[in-house]
Write a structure and sequence with these properties.
With about 400 residues, the chain is α/β, with parallel strands linked by helices. It is about 40% helix and about 15% strand. The chain has a 7-stranded mixed β-sheet with strand order 2-10-9-8-7-3-4, with helices on both faces. Strands 11-12-15-14 form a 4-stranded antiparallel β-sheet. Strands 1-13 form a two-stranded parallel sheet. A hairpin with a 7-residue loop joins strand 11 and strand 12 (about 340). It binds pyridoxal-5'-phosphate. Pyridoxal-5'-phosphate binds near residues 113, 185 and 253.
């Protein structure tokens, strides 16, 4: 895959820092640019379906906030976030089994992507070890990379991260373990209850901080809900789990609103870091989102999103079953937006993408999601922004491309 990046001449007065020089643009963004052609059926995007965005409900909420509390909605606010929304989140998480949480344990952030940046800033020293799943969320690697960690990959299988693989030696001096227990991006995998218990127990034994990133957890359309790592830790009296959540997948990503739930000592430090970054998350947005969630809108809205995503997921699973040649394997996610495909060992999905795009179908190759030892014969498919008809058509084309390539 050779994305066409024009060489830009930088004025000599601009001398980038070593940190800036080390930043590279996301492989996915480059791929998305290529797949913007309307004739391409793209399973490459990581975007939620716009069909789920509650436009009218948000409009009413913004109107209401501006009409009734306009002056404070347009004023600077506390770095920690809008107090009623922090309290709502603390209650919501308490309701889901997290013990001992108050609004003081919640920091509202400008999308959970900002949480990754702030946690990186506060917890990673250069060359310090950070434990990650194999594969893991590319956006987290991008965020953490600025703080120059050394990644150590924790062995994972088709059921996700293997807690037994976290040895004392692996965890030694690690800043934290970054974990995605629900419908992981990129694989769609979910950690079962036994592994969750084992993971929290292991972390407690090793005094290892775990960052639980869970933007997709509410989007479950099969199987039964699993306890969050934070709830298990809080029930065991272990304070070493930090949880990140987001309104991006349950309401809309353009709101740029997420949260961190953490021990107060860490929240205080994160607040200092956030102050330096953006003072606070947009007051008006936080107030409008509070208006929407406080009366239980998500209780009816999220099941509708799940029903839609389940149909699309089923359409993709049916098409894969019908068209894929022997030697290609995939998982059936219980929720979320992605599934993961394993190709025959000799196929490098990065090279396959060129052929696929020439045939008007796109996906994200697996390679960029690996912090270390890349598994090149893997790819991620997103099924939520493509109609069922196009899913069937796109998977058929992809299967043809794979057969030709084999
Ligand atoms: C696993 C994971 N974490 C964090 C994010 C960032 O989400 P946001 O900043 O929109 O809350 C994403 C976005 O897709 C994601 O997949």
């Amino acid at each position: 895959m050779k994305p066409a990046t024009p060489v830009e001449v930088c004025p000599p007065s601009i001398k980038f820092s070593a940190r800036a020089r080390a930043i590279t643009s996301s492989v996915i963004r480059e791929i998305l640019k290529i797949t913007e052609r309307p004739e391409v059926i793209s399973f490459a995007g990581g975007l939620p379906s716009p069909a789920t965005f509650p436009v009218e409900v948000m409009k009413d909420a913004f109107d209401r906030v501006l009409m009734t509390q306009g002056k404070s909605a347009l004023q600077y606010g506390p770095t920690e976030g809008y107090a009623p929304l922090r309290q709502w989140l603390a209650d919501h998480l308490t309701h889901r089994g997290m013990r001992g949480l108050t609004a003081d344990n919640i920091l509202l952030v400008s999308g959970s992507q900002q949480a990754l940046d702030l946690l990186g800033k506060c917890l990673i020293d250069p060359q310090q070890k950070v434990l990650v799943e194999t594969p893991t969320y590319l956006g987290a690697l991008q965020a953490f990379n600025l703080f120059e960690p050394q990644y150590a990959s924790v062995a994972s299988d088709t059921h996700g991260l293997q807690p037994d693989a976290i040895t004392r030696e692996l965890a030694q001096d690690a800043a934290f373990l970054y974990a995605l227990p629900n419908f992981q991006n990129p694989t769609g995998r979910t950690l079962d209850a036994a592994r969750r218990h084992a993971l929290v127990e292991r972390a407690r034994q090793l005094d290892l901080l775990v960052i639980e990133d869970d933007p997709y957890g509410d989007l479950r359309y099969r199987g039964s809900a699993q306890p969050s790592l934070l709830s298990l830790a809080s029930q065991a009296g272990y304070e070493g789990v930090v949880r990140m959540g987001s309104f991006s997948k349950t309401l809309a990503p353009g709101l740029r609103l997420g949260y961190i739930a953490a021990p107060h000592a860490l929240i205080k430090k994160l607040v200092q870091a956030k102050q330096a970054t953006d003072l606070h998350t947009a007051t008006l947005t936080q107030m409008a989102v509070y208006e929407v969630v406080k009366d239980g809108f998500l209780d009816t809205h999220v099941p509708q999103t799940c029903a839609l995503y389940r149909e699309q997921c089923d359409a993709m699973l049916a098409a894969l079953k019908q068209h894929m040649p022997a030697g290609v394997a995939w998982n059936a996610p219980e929720g979320g937006m992605f599934l993961w495909v394993q190709l025959p060992a000799h196929i490098d999905s990065m090279k396959l993408l060129d052929v696929a795009v020439a045939n008007n179908v796109a996906f994200v190759p697996g390679a960029p999601f690996y912090a270390n030892d890349v598994v090149a014969n893997t790819l991620r498919l997103s099924f939520v922004t493509v109609s069922k008809e196009k899913i069937a058509q796109g998977v058929e084309i992809l299967a043809r491309v794979i057969k030709q390539y084999s």
